[in-house]
C-alpha cells in the first residue's frame, strides 16, 4: 500500500494535521494524482543536488502534463482548470530554484511518515498530552466566541453613533431655525413649546452621548480583558507548541485561528477609534455644560491606542523558525556560509498593510552571548511583507537567502574553546519593522528561538542535542545563557522526544519496550522513570560506562544508520533494535531454533547485529550473535540480502543459513522478501558466462563458528563468491576442503 493510501485511511484528527502542510507550494491535488510516482523519487537527495532537482522538476511537469491529457479526454472541466493553474504555478515558482521544490516535497513526505508513525503509537506521551489538553481547546473556543461578540458589539455601537449623529443634526437644524426668527416671533407660545422640545432633545442627546461612551468603554474593557488573559495565553501556547514541533513533536496548528482573532480585534479597535473621532467631530459642532465627550473621549482614545500598540507588538511572530533547507529535520542549527530560511507573519491581516511593511533581519542584536564569537548576516536581509506569497493569503515574509558569517576576532579565543563550547552557545536572529497606519506609528520587534551556530557539519549532532534540551526544558524564548547552568529534564518527557526523533527522521517512533531500554542505558538501572530527572551531562557530555562515546552520539549514529541503510526494514517494524543482550536471550531461549532478532550494537557506533537461537545435540540452548554491520559494510550489500544469503560453517558441517524465523515466529522470507534486491535463482550459472566472458559474482556473508564458541569467530563477511560457484563447490568438494578455503 502506498504511503498516500495509508494517509487517507487516518482518523480525522490526523488528516487535519496533513492538511496543514499542503498549500500552493505543493498542492494536495498533485500529491493525490501522482502519489505512486512521487513516492518512487529520491526527493531528499535532490534537495542537495541541483542537477538532480532540475531533472525531477522537469519530470514532475511532464507528469502533470500527462494528467492534463487524461482529464481532458474525460472532459473534467474543474480538474483541467486546477491542473493548468498548478502547472503554471509550479513552473513559475521553481524554475529558477528547483532544489526548493525538492526540499518541500521531501518535507511533506517526511511529515506524512511522522503522522503515520504517531497514529500507530497506542499511547500518547506526557508532553503530547499536555499540548492537547481539553482545557486549552475549551479556551480556544471561548476566545473565538468572545472575539465574535466584541466585533458584534462594535458594529452595534456604530449604529448608536449614527443615531446620535442623526439626532444631533435634527437638533442643530431646529435650533438654527429658531435662532433665525425675529425677536417678536421668539416670544410666541409655539416657539416656547419648541424651545421646551429642544431642551428635551438636548437631554436625549446628552443621554445618548453618555450611552455611546459607556458602550465604547465596555467594548474597550472587553478587548483589554481578552488580550490580557485568554488571547495572551493562546499565543504563548502556540509558541510552546511551535517549540515542541521543532524538536519532532506534533505539528502546531492554530496560527490561522489566532490571525483571525487578532485581525478581528484590530478591526474592532480601529472601528472604536473611528467612533471616537466621530464623537470629536460632533463635539466641535455642539457642546454644553456637563458634556461627557471632552471628559471621557481622551482617556478612551488613549486606551484604544495603547491596546493597538500591544496588539500589533504581539502579532509579529516567527511563523517558521530558522532552518537550513539541507537539514530540514534540524531547525535552529545554522552553519556558517550556508543559506537558511525563516518566515515571519503579522497576525493582523489588513489589506492596507500589503507591501507596506519592510522587515529587517539581524543577528545577536543588543544581546550578549557566552563566547566572543560574533556573526553578521549576508544576503537579502530586508524584505517587504505581503499577502501574495502565502497560500492562505496571510501577511508574511520569508527570508530564503540569509547566510551567517563569522566575524574575525582579534581575541584569538576561538581555538581555545572546548569540544562542547560551540554547540552550547546560543544566538538570536532578530527582526524589526515599523507599521504606519491611520496616524499611528508602531515599532515592532521579534526574535527567533535561540539558534546554534556551527562551522563544520561534524558539530551538527551535538548542536541538535542542545536544541532538543533547550526547547524541552524551557519556554523562555530568549535565555541565551541557558547552558551556563542547564537544568535537568524529566526523563519521561525526554524519552518521548527521543521517540519523536525516530518518527520524524526515520518514519517510525519507539515502543514502550524500546524506550525502557533507553531509560536503562541513560540511568544505568531499571527504574520507574516517571519522576526521574536526567542531567544534561548524562545525556550529551559524559561517556557511557566503558565506552568512548556519549549516549547521544550513540543514538545519533543509529538514526543515521537507519536513514541511510535500513529504512524500509525499520518502517516495517521488523527491527527490534533497542534490546539488551540479556533481554535478547530471555526472548529467544524458548523459541524454535533458527529464530532471530535484530538489534543495534551497544559497543559499536552505528552498528546493527542479529542473534539467533540454536539447540545442541544434548538439548542445551545456545545463542549466536554476528559481528555488527556498520554503514561501510551495508554500503556494499543491502541488509535484507545479508539476512537472505548469510551462511554459517559449523566445524565439519556444510555451510547453511541459520536464520529461519524473525522473532517471534515470522518466516524470514515473508518478513524481508519484498526488500531483497534479487532472487538467488536469478544469478547465472558458470556455464552461462557473464559480461565480457566473466562469471557474474555476488557477495555472500559467511561466518565460521568453532565447536567451543557460541559467537561467530571473526567472520569473513562479504566473501566475493557467486552463488553458482558456491553450489558447484558444494557438489564436488568436501566440507573440510570448503572450510579450509574459507
From TrEMBL:
Q: Which GO terms describe its biological process?
A: cell surface receptor signaling pathway via JAK-STAT; defense response to virus; negative regulation of developmental process; regulation of apoptotic process; type I interferon-mediated signaling pathway; type II interferon-mediated signaling pathway
Q: What is this protein called?
A: Signal transducer and activator of transcription
Tell me the GO molecular function terms. DNA binding; DNA-binding transcription factor activity, RNA polymerase II-specific
**Compartment(s) where it occurs, according to its Swiss-Prot or TrEMBL record:** Cytoplasm; Nucleus
Name where it mostly resides: cytoplasm
The SH2 domain sits at 570-672
Q: Which gene encodes it?
A: Stat4
Q: Which organism is it from?
A: Upupa epops
Name the Gene3D superfamilies on file: EF-hand (1.10.238.10), SH2 domain (3.30.505.10), STAT transcription factor, all-alpha domain (1.20.1050.20), STAT transcription factor, DNA-binding domain (2.60.40.630), STAT transcription factor, N-terminal domain (1.10.532.10)
Family, per the entry? Belongs to the transcription factor STAT family.
Coiled coil residues, start to end: none
Amino acid at each position: 500500500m502506498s504511503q498516500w493510501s495509508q494517509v487517507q485511511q487516518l482518523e480525522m484528527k490526523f488528516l487535519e494535521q496533513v492538511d496543514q502542510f499542503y498549500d500552493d507550494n505543493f498542492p494536495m491535488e498533485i500529491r493525490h494524482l501522482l502519489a505512486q510516482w512521487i513516492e518512487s523519487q529520491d526527493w531528499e537527495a535532490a534537495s542537495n543536488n541541483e542537477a538532480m532537482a532540475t531533472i525531477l522538476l522537469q519530470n514532475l511537469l511532464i507528469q502533470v502534463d500527462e494528467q492534463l491529457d487524461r482529464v481532458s479526454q474525460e472532459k473534467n472541466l474543474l480538474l483541467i482548470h486546477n491542473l493548468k493553474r498548478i502547472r503554471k504555478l509550479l513552473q513559475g515558482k521553481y524554475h529558477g530554484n528547483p532544489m526548493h521544490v525538492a526540499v518541500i516535497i521531501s518535507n511533506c513526505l517526511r511529515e506524512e511518515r511522522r503522522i503515520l508513525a504517531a497514529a500507530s503509537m497506542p499511547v500518547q506521551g506526557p508532553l503530547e498530552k499536555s499540548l492537547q489538553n481539553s482545557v486549552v481547546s475549551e479556551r480556544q473556543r471561548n476566545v473565538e466566541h468572545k472575539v465574535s461578540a466584541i466585533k458584534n458589539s462594535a458594529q452595534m455601537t456604530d449604529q448608536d453613533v449614527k443615531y446620535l449623529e442623526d439626532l444631533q443634526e435634527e437638533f442643530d437644524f431646529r435650533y438654527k431655525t429658531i435662532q433665525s426668527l425675529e425677536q417678536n416671533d421668539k416670544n410666541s407660545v409655539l416657539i416656547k413649546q419648541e424651545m421646551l422640545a429642544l431642551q428635551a432633545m438636548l437631554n436625549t442627546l446628552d443621554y445618548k452621548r453618555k450611552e455611546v461612551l459607556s458602550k465604547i468603554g465596555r467594548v474597550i474593557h472587553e478587548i483589554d480583558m481578552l488580550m490580557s488573559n485568554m488571547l495572551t495565553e493562546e499565543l504563548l501556547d502556540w509558541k510552546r507548541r511551535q517549540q515542541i514541533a521543532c524538536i519532532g513533536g506534533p505539528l502546531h496548528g492554530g496560527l490561522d485561528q489566532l490571525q483571525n482573532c487578532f485581525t478581528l480585534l484590530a478591526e474592532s479597535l480601529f472601528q472604536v477609534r473611528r467612533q471616537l473621532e466621530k464623537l470629536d467631530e460632533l463635539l466641535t459642532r455642539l457642546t454644553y455644560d456637563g458634556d461627557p465627550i471632552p471628559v471621557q473621549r481622551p482617556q478612551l482614545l488613549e486606551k484604544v491606542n495603547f491596546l493597538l500598540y500591544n496588539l500589533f507588538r504581539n502579532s509579529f511572530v516567527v511563523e517558521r523558525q530558522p532552518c537550513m533547507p539541507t537539514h530540514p529535520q534540524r531547525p535552529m542549527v545554522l552553519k556558517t556560509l550556508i543559506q537558511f530560511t525563516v518566515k515571519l507573519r503579522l497576525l493582523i491581516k489588513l489589506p492596507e498593510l500589503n507591501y507596506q511593511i519592510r522587515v529587517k533581519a539581524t543577528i545577536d542584536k543588543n544581546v550578549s552571548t557566552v563566547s566572543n564569537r560574533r556573526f553578521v548576516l549576508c544576503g537579502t536581509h530586508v524584505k517587504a511583507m505581503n499577502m501574495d506569497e502565502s497560500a492562505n493569503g496571510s501577511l508574511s515574509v520569508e527570508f530564503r537567502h540569509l547566510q551567517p558569517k563569522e566575524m574575525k576576532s582579534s581575541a584569538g579565543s576561538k581555538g581555545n574553546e572546548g569540544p562542547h563550547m560551540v554547540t552550547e552557545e546560543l544566538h538570536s536572529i532578530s527582526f524589526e519593522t515599523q507599521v504606519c497606519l491611520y496616524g499611528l506609528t508602531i515599532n515592532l520587534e521579534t526574535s527567533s528561538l535561540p539558534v546554534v551556530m556551527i562551522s563544520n557539519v561534524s558539530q551538527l549532532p551535538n548542536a541538535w542535542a542542545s536544541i532538543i534540551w533547550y526547547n524541552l526544558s524551557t519556554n523562555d524564548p530568549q535565555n541565551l545563557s541557558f547552558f551556563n547552568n542547564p537544568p535537568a529534564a524529566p526523563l519521561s518527557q525526554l524519552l518521548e522526544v527521543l521517540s519523536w526523533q525516530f518518527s520524524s527522521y526515520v518514519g517510525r517512533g519507539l515502543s514502550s519496550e524500546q524506550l525502557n531500554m533507553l531509560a536503562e542505558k541513560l540511568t544505568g538501572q531499571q527504574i520507574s522513570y516517571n519522576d526521574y530527572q536526567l542531567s544534561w551531562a548524562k545525556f550529551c557530555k559524559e561517556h557511557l560506562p566503558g565506552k568512548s562515546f556519549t549516549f547521544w552520539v550513540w543514538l545519533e549514529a543509529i538514526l543515521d544508520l537507519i536513514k541511510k541503510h535500513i529504512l524500509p526494514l525499520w518502517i516495517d517494524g521488523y527491527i527490534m533494535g533497542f534490546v539488551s543482550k540479556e533481554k535478547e536471550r530471555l526472548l529467544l531461549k524458548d523459541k524454535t531454533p533458527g529464530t532471530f532478532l535484530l538489534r543495534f550494537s551497544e559497543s559499536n557506533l552505528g552498528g546493527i547485529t542479529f542473534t539467533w537461537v540454536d539447540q545442541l545435540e544434548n538439548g542445551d540452548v545456545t545463542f549466536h550473535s554476528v559481528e555488527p554491520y556498520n554503514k561501510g559494510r551495508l554500503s556494499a550489500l543491502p541488509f535484507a540480502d545479508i539476512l537472505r544469503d548469510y551462511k554459517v560453517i559449523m566445524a565439519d558441517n556444510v555451510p547453511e543459513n541459520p536464520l529461519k524465523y524473525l522473532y517471534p515466529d515470522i518466516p524470514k522470507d515473508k518478513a524481508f522478501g519484498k526488500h531483497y534486491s534479487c532472487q538467488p535463482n536469478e544469478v547465472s550459472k558458470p556455464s552461462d558466462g557473464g559480461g565480457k566472458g566473466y562469471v557474474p559474482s555476488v557477495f555472500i556473508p559467511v561466518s565460521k563458528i568453532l565447536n567451543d564458541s557460541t559467537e561467530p569467530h571473526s567472520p569473513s563477511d562479504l566473501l566475493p563468491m557467486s552463488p553458482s560457484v558456491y553450489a558447484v563447490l558444494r557438489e564436488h568438494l568436501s566440507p573440510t576442503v570448503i572450510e579450509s578455503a574459507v
